[in-house]
Amino acid sequence: MEFEPVIGLEIHAQLLTDAKIFCGCSAKFGAAPNTHTCPVCLGMPGVLPVLNRKVVEFMMKMALATHCDLNRECNFARKNYFYPDLPKGYQISQYAHPPAEHGWVEVELDGGKKRIGITRIHMEEDAGKLMHDEHNPASYVDLNRTGVPLIEIVSDPDIRSAEEAAAYLRRLHEILVYLEICDGNMEEGSFRCDANISLRPRGTEPFGIRAELKNMNSFRNVQRALEYEIKRQQYVLEGGGQVVQETRLWDDTAGVTHSMRSKEEAHDYRYFPDPDLVPVVIDDAWIDDVRKTLPELGSEKRERYVRDHGISAYDAGVLTSTPATASFYEATVASFPTITPILVKTSSNWITGDLMKMLNEDKKDFTASPITPRAIAELIQIIDDGTISGKMAKDVVEEMYKSGKPPGEIVKEKGLVQITDEGALTKTVAGILEKNPEQVAQYHAGKEKVFGFFVGQVMKATQGKANPQMINDLLKKMLAS
Amino acid sequence: MELYSLTIHELLDKLRKGETSSVEITASVFGRIDAVEKDVRAYITLMRETALAEAARADEAIRKGGIGALTGIPIALKDICCTNGVRTTCGSRILQNFIPPYDATVVEKLRAAGAVFAGKTNMDEFAMGSSTETSFFGATRNPWDLTRIPGGSSGGSAAAVAAGECIAALGSDTGGSIRQPAALCGVVGMKPTYGRVSRFGLVAFASSLDQIGPFTKDVEDCAILMNVIAGYDPRESTSVPEEVPDYRQFLGRGIEGWTVGIPKEYFIAGIDPEVEAAVRQTIRVVEGAGARCIEVSLPHTEYCLAVYYIVAPAEACSNLARYDGVKYGFRSEEGRDLMEMYKKTRAAGFGAEVKRRIMIGTYALSSGYYDAYYKKASQVRALIKRDFDEAFAKCDVILTPTTPTPAFRIGEKTDDPMQMYLSDIFTISTNLAGIPGISVPCGFTAAGLPVGVQFLAGHFQEGQLIQFASAYEKQAHLEKRRPTL
Amino acid sequence: MEKIKISQDEVTYVAHLARLEFGEEEKEKFTFQLNEILRYMDKLGEVDTAGVEPMTHAIAQKNAFREDAVGVSLPPEVSLANAPESRGGCFQVPKVIE
C-alpha cells in the first residue's frame, strides 16, 4: 500500500514593531529579564489592552503579499489556559473571525511550481519565557516576551512531502523578511513552525489521523522531522495499527519524534470574544494605502531579473537571497548610463562572487558593505573600457574593500592603469623578442607553447599592466614577420 | 453642624470663604471614623497619615488662590480601585497584600482635582455579592441598623457616606453594586453609561458590565463627582470619546412636561409593600413637579437575571484566571508542584461565592456548552437592550424601585445563592443594556430603614438623570435624617 | 425528580479546568447549588433568538488603537515587588514538568 503524506504548517512570526501589541513596552529581543514589562503586559489587576495599529498594518501587508482575502471586520478572542508564562491566564488571540483568509504562495520544486494554500492569518500576543533550573525543583519566568506581537499563518493541508514543506517555509520566510515585518530568526524564536501531518492511502480523499509536531527550530529540522514522522506513521499503518492523535516533539540529537505523554487531555480553551477590545474595521482606503507600501518581493525580483536582465535563474536566486543583496545589485545596475547584458552579468558575478565572499568572511551583510554599489559599478566600467585588466581588478577590489576608496583613486595611487599605448607596447614586445632569439627560433620551428613564455615576459616587463589582448595581437603580428 | 456631615458643595463653599480648612475637614472625618468605624466597619485600609498630608497641601493650594473641583475634600475609594503604593485587596485573601505600582485613571483624576483620600472601603470579594458579606475582611454593617447588611458589593462605600466616615465615595457597579447599597443606606448612587468613566485600574469582574460611579449625600455632589471622573481614556479600548458636559448645569432645571415610563414588569409580587408604597409615592411627587407618567413594557425583564448570571461569571472566570500565585498576591505554601500550587492557592485564596461564579462561568464557556449558555445569553442581552431602546422612544426617563426589599439581616441570605441573586433584579438590566442609572433616597420604612427609587435614561444621558433626580429631590423635600450611631 | 444539570464528576472536571479544588462535602454542596442555578438558566430556552446577533459590547465601537511608540516600562524591581517568590530577576514557580 502506498501512502501519501498530508501536511499543514502553522507559522508564528514575531512582528518588528517597536512596541508590544497591547502596551507601550519595547518589543526588542534580548533585554535583561523583566525589564520590558509594565502593569498591562504583567497582567496586573485592573489593566486593559489597547491595540497597536502597526500590528494591523503588518498583518495586512502579509495578507496582501500572500493573496489573502481581507475581511472588513475582525475581533479578538480570549484563549483561556493556565501556564506560568501566560500572566493573564489567557492569551488574546483571534478565533471566530480571522482578518485574512484563502491566500496562497507559489513554491518552486524540482518538478516545477506548486501553489500552497493559506487558510488564515491572524494576530495574537506572544507569551513569556519559562526557564528550568537544572538542579532545583524550580522554574523561572521572564515576561519580557509577553505581549510581543505575532501573526499566525496557517496553511491548507496542501503539502505532500518534507521537501515541499521546507520550500513553503522558505518562501514564507522570504516574504516576511522582504516585507520588513519580521526578521525571520528561527534560533531566536522570531519565526516558529509547528506541523500537522497524517498519511492516507494514495488516491483516496479522507484525511488520516494526524500528529502535531513541535520543537523544530530550523528549516533543516522541519524537513528532518517530517521525513522521520512520515516513516514512523507509515510503519504504524503498514503494521495494521492506528496513528495516535497527539503532540510529538522533535528530538534534534536523537533524530526522532517523542510523544508528549502529558497528563493533560486536549485543552478546552473556552474561546469567547474579548470584551476589553473592540472590533477592527478595515476599509478599502486603508487597504489601498497598505498595498501601496508593499515592496517588490523576492519572487517578483527573480522573475524580473531573468526576464529583463537576462540573468540565469540560479544567479537571480543568489542575488535575491536577502533583500539587501537585491538592493545592492539593483543600485549597481542603476549606476550604469546604459544597461547591457555584459554589464549586468559582470555585476552579478562580482556581487555573488568576490564581494559576497569578503562580506561572508567578515560576517557582514550587504547593508554594511564597505564597497558601495556605485563603486562596484565604477570598477566594472573601468574594466569594460580597458583602463585596467580583469586580473588587476581582483587586487583593486580587495583594496576597495579594505580602504573604502573608489576604484579610480586606487588605480591612480598604485599606478595600475593598463598600458594600451600601442607604440610603447610595440617597443617592449620588440625588445623581448630581441632578447630571446632562441625562443623565437623555437616558435618558428613549431613550438607553439613558447608563445606563453613571451606573454609572461611582456607582463613581467610591464609589471602586469599591459593589456593582454594587445600583447597577443602584437606578438602574433611581430612573430609573423 | 459637624463638618463630616456636610456635602461637597457646602464644604467647598466654606473653603472658598475661608470658614474652614481641609485639615479641619479631614480631622472631622477621621474623628467620626474613630467614633463609629468599630461598629460600621466600612473600611479595609485607612489612609490617615497621607490624608492629613494631602489636606495640608490642599490648604496651601487654597491659600495660593486655587480651589479645584474637589480641593481638600476627603473621598473614600472602594478597594477595587488600584491606588499606587497603597494596598488594594478587592476584599479578597488572594490580594490581601497586593500593592499596585500604579493609580487607576479615576484616582489620577481625583488627585488632580485636589481630593484627599480617606481610605479603601470594604466590598464583597471581587465585587461578587449584594451584601458585602463575602469580604475576606468581614462584613460591613448598615449604619441605619447594625444588624443589617449595607448592600453590596460596594457596601463599604455606601455605609461610609451614610455614616459620615467620608464626604463622598467611589464604588463600582456590575449588576447594581452602587445603586443597591445606595438605596439600602439612604444615599445617592449613580452607575454611569458603559464607557463613560474609565475602567483602567478598576479590577475587572465582568468587563462588559463594570462601571465606576459616585456615592454622594445629594444629587448636586453626584454632579460634582461625575464632572471629575467622566471622560475618554485612551488606555481603555471600550472608553467612549463622548464630550463631558458640566453636569452641574442640569441641576435645578425642572422636569415640567417630561414623560416618565413606569415598567409594568418591575411592579410584581415579591416587592416589600413598604418599598412599593414609597416608590408609588415618588410617582406622585414627580407628577407634582410637572412630569407625566405612562406605563411602558420591558418584556424581557424576567430573563435578565439568567442572562446576567451567565455573562458575568463567564467574563469573571477569565478575568480571575490571573490570580494564580505566580506574579503577585497570595500563594499557598503547600503545593509540591505547579498544578498543586495553582489549585491550593486558588482554593484557599478565593471565597465560596467567587468560586461558585468561577465554576458557573467556566461551565458556560466550556466545550459543548458555549452555544447553549454564553451565546444564547448574549443574544437575549441584545433583546434586553432593544426593550430599552423602544421604551426610551416613548419616555424621557424610566422610574423603578431600586431594590425589592429594604436591608435584610446579616446572614439571612448567605445559604441560598439564588435568593441573594434576586436582590439585584431591578438593577441588573441597566448593566446589560449599558445605560446609566441613579438611585436616590425616597423615604424610610416604619422600622427606619432607607428606601431608594431608581431612575434610568438612555446612553450618555447622565445630565438628564441629574436633572430629573435633582427635580425629584427638590419636590420630594424629604426630611433629613441621620443614622443614630 | 428535578433534572440533573451537572454531575459531581462534571463538577470535578470543571474545577480542574478552573484550577480549583474542593473537599468532598464542599463539592457536594457546590454540585447542589450549581444545579439549582443552572436549572434557573433554562428559562432562556423560552426566548426566541432566531436571527439575533449576540451582543458583546453595550456601545458599538471600532478601531481603538495606540501608536507604535515605546513608552516607559517598570523597573524590574517594581515588576517583581509583589512576587511571592523571585530569583535572578525572574518570577519563581515550582518546577514545571513538560
Task: Explain what this protein looks like in three dimensions.
The complex is a heterotrimer of chains A (481), B (485) and C (98). Chain A has 15 helices and 17 strands. Chain A is α+β, with helices and mostly antiparallel strands and 481 residues long. Chain A has 3 domains: 3-286, no CATH class; 298-413, no CATH class; 422-480, Arc Repressor Mutant, subunit A (Orthogonal Bundle), CATH 1.10.10.410. In chain A, the strands form 4 sheets. Chain A has a 9-stranded mixed β-sheet with strand order 3-7-8-11-1-12-13-14-15. A 3-stranded antiparallel β-sheet of chain A has the order 6-5-16, with no helix packed on it. Chain A is elongated and about 95 Å long. The N and C termini of chain A lie far apart (80 Å). In chain A, 41% of the residues are buried. The model of chain A has no long low-confidence stretch (mean pLDDT 92). Chain B has helices at residues 8-16, 22-40, 48-63, 105-112, 155-163, 179-185, 219-229, 273-288, 304-319, 338-349, 352-365, 371-392, 417-422, 428-433, 462-476; strands at residues 43-46, 74-78, 116-121, 168-173, 188-191, 211-216, 259-263, 292-296, 397-401, 437-444, 450-456. Chain B has an 11-stranded mixed β-sheet with strand order 1-3-2-4-6-5-10-11-9-7-8, with helices on both faces. With 485 residues, chain B is an alpha/beta fold. Chain B contains 15 helices and 11 strands. Chain C is of the alpha+beta class. Chain C has a domain at 8-46: Histone, subunit A. Helix content of chain C is 34%, strand content 9%. Chain C is built from 3 helices and 3 strands, in the order ααβαββ. Chain C has helices at 8-17, 24-41, 76-80, and strands at residues 65-66, 86-87, 90-94. In chain C, β2 (86-87) and β3 form a beta hairpin. The longest helix of chain C has 18 residues, at 24-41. The chains are: A alpha+beta (481), B alpha/beta (485), C alpha+beta (98). Chains in contact: A-B, A-C, B-C. Chains B and C meet through α9, α10, α11 and α12 of B and α1, α2 and β3 of C. β10 (138-142) of chain A pairs antiparallel with β3 of chain C, so a sheet runs across the interface.
